[in-house]
Amino acid sequence: MVHPGSLARACNTATLRFARVPAEDDFVRNRPADRLRGEVFHAWMGTAARSWPVFPVVAVVAVLYVLFLTLLPAPPWWSGFCAGLFFGALSVAGMWLVHLHSGSHSALFGTLGEQATADVLQSHRMKRSGWRLVNGLAFADHGDVDHTLVGPGGIFAVESKWTNQPWEFDSSGRIPGVERALVQARLGARKITSTLRAHHVAPESGVRPAIVIWGPGAPVIAGGLVELDGVAVFEGRKLRSWPLGSEDTQLSPDVVETVFRALLGELLSRQPLNLRQGVSTPA
User: Fold this and answer.
1) How many CB atoms lie within 10 A of CB 95?
2) Half-sphere exposure (CA, 13 Å, Cβ side) for 194?
3) CA-CA distance, 227 to 222, in Å (whole number)?
4) C-alpha to C-alpha distance for 228 and 226, rounded to whole angstroms
5) What confidence score (pLDDT) does residue 278 get?
6) pLDDT in tens, 206-237
7) How many alpha carbons lie under 13 Å from residue 269 in its C-beta half-sphere?
8) Residue 143 near residue 157, CB atoms below 8 Å
């Protein structure tokens, strides 16, 4: 770990190659749930490719239906309405069947969780308070860290989870459904710490792991926050801004910007790795 004083001095002297990343790249590449969107897209395309014999049959049915409409003694507007209704319903049904058989249901809900967390962490209120966010930093043996939040109150590795099944506290005060996510969050924090150390910009306060849980099955957490095994667990419905951070871990604006640029540079350099992540990686 680097002492905060030396880290602040390093901010003024370091010539990091990623410090000149243009703002438009921040917007285009630093998006939440990019990996999950890629998983969903490739799953849909794979399912459609495996189902190719169905498409000629659907095309024949569509042609026969159009011929049937042309032979009906009905006004043109009625025939057009029926044709539009038929093709609209056919398109929606086809997309739903492709999605249903693609096995990407979990990944699709995962994108909702990551987007919801990013909406909070990238809000104008958070930006005005000096917080910066990097989404989807990938690691070959870990999947990706959904969000890395850097600001005056420290650095946080944040995992977003969406659950439709109830995750409730048991008699010991734990949430059984979140155990795997706790391990994932701690591992993500260690990965981010190692990355910052490689760039000599790791603050002494370290990287804290956190989880945000969304969805109809999310547990009801009094106050919206509980700590389990050193991991801050948030109820997404109650997350309006980032409440964590203390005076002991205050990072100056220069340090925040340097750490953010280091992480953003890593994100941009690993874009091909993000695209190669398979469906089996953790959400």
Assistant:
1) 12
2) 8
3) 12
4) 7
5) 40
6) 899 999 999 999 999 988 999 999 999 999 99
7) 11
8) no
